[in-house]
Amino acid sequence: MGIYLAEVLVRRGRKVVVAEQGTSGSASDRSLILGPNPHSGGHLGVLEGWGTGPGGSSRLWGGQLWPWQPWEFESSVGGNAPWPVQPREILDRYSAVSSVLGLSPVHQKVHEGRAEWLVQPEELKSANVTTRYSTWLGWSERNFASNRNLRLGQSCVQEDVFAELATVDGSGCGVLRVTRGNNMEELVAPRAVVLAAGTVGNIRAIATSQLGSDLPRIGSGFMDHVSTRAATARVHDWSKFRAVASSKRVQGVLASPRLVPTPEYFRERAVLPSFAHWEFALPESSGARSMRRFFRASQSRIDGGRLREGVLAVVRSTSDLTVMAESLSRALVRRERPILRNSEPFLRIDSQQPQRESTRVQWTRSEDDAWNLNANWSVGEAEMKSRHSTLDAILEAAEEMDLGAELEPLEDLNQVRDTYHLMGGTVMGSSAADSVVDANCLVHNTQNVFVAGASVFPSGGVANPTFTALALTHRISEILP
Q: Of residues 216 and 51, which shows the higher confidence score?
């Protein structure tokens, strides 16, 4: 978020410095920032899905763009927490984000359902389930520290400058403790301070400053999407199944299908929003799996990992060359993302979590004066009810659809995991008693300290939060003093 915000502000003639959170050169070492004994509370994303250094978490994310629809903000759907900002204030800025990122107009056509090549056959329609498509940034665009459309923002990164929110002055303006590479330390009062360090980092920045004691809700309301394998797909017609389940590519844009029950379905059953998507488990030793790891290493700029996975991809591809060739040939003809016959297809359901005060990320000071991460994360009855209800809707819809496969529900829906969609912890609200920031993402009790990112979300929508977080960040750029 920091590089994106810097890009927008520099284009408008503003002077911006992007500094890493922390003190001294060790600030880019994630293990040191998290503390000597971090506790995840069962949430893997707080340890593995949050990045530091230039590009931050964009070095790790999958690049999936999912614009929310107005009903995803509504408190009337499944008990969502209310948003103090009107949905239109966010939705109207998706196009601005797309422009800054240099996205093809095809992305918007896909999101709005106007791309003819994505229209499903008549027999795939259902009264309670709709098909929506997400789009993806390319591998070379996902890391904002190397995205060619964000070069002005990248030029603002000061790799030898580290900053922490120290306090606020008498007028409520933020004061930073800045440490340079030569360990020279000084207090700086900039015109505006924007915390854009990811959900875990934003919570840390406020909780470890003077402001932390004045904001009782800091860290609370931490959320994610809860993911469960819900059914196995027993394929009897691979051609038909691939046409329904595969991601499609046209004009360089990859789009993936998502099965989403209608908002009326969620309202009638008073359940939190969820959606279903296809998952394809590849054999551990397959070439395709190694190729995926190679691209991940490339995105994160892990040179050793990139070389190792590249060699493994070449070696392992020889063992399943026939399967890969058959799938690739179909992909070239039909513009589909390859689905290998030796993969095991599953239907996975991702459910929104409610905002709970007890689910939180805390920072505690150790005996040696180091800050340590402690997360408390759990899954409750609301998420379980949502998953079961969504599965019922999908199974009923599958009877009306011609999938080329039968869905066999899995007996155990309690094997859940987080999706690395870290949200909440500095949530929006009306006062410091119930939130951390106001409708403008301004930290309560301050005049110029803002928070950018999904940490301000009161609720998590149906799916992927990054596109919405970028839209909110763009809105912040228009509000800054």
A: 216
